[in-house]
Design a protein that fits this description.
Helix content is about 20%, strand content about 25%. The protein is of the alpha+beta class. It has one domain. Strand 2 and strand 3 form a beta hairpin. The longest helix has 16 residues. The chain is flat and about 65 Å long.
Length: about 110
């Protein structure tokens, strides 16, 4: 479509985001303010890095069950590379849910 031409039409509907991680999100909501280790992979694993990134982004952006709650609570995530006892590097993902009334929801 050339610039300057307007076509009056509604945008296509958004694809429904799955909520395949809703059970994990519910466990975090049941323990507000407590960080949980939710995923660990070898740091040199390409598939592991992709999975950690996918879950990190889901938490940070409210996808796949980590939707913003009606009560104003929010989720947060942190990923770290740590040395395991055997000397190998591990990629770890932690998550937390902050209830709106906890005073830390707006971190």
């Amino acid at each position: 479509m050339p610039l300057g031409i307007i076509s009056w039409e509604a945008p296509s509907p958004r694809r429904k985001q799955g909520d395949d991680l809703a059970a994990l999100a519910a466990q975090l909501r049941e323990n507000p303010g407590r960080w949980a280790l939710i995923l660990e992979h070898p740091a040199d694993s390409k598939a592991g890095k992709q999975e950690v990134s996918r879950l990190f982004n889901a938490i940070k952006h409210g996808w796949k069950g980590f939707t913003r709650t009606n009560t104003g609570g929010s989720y947060d995530a942190a990923r770290r590379t740590v040395q395991a006892e055997d000397g190998t590097a591990k990629l770890r993902l932690h998550a937390v849910y902050y209830a709106a009334d906890s005073g830390t929801a707006s971190r």
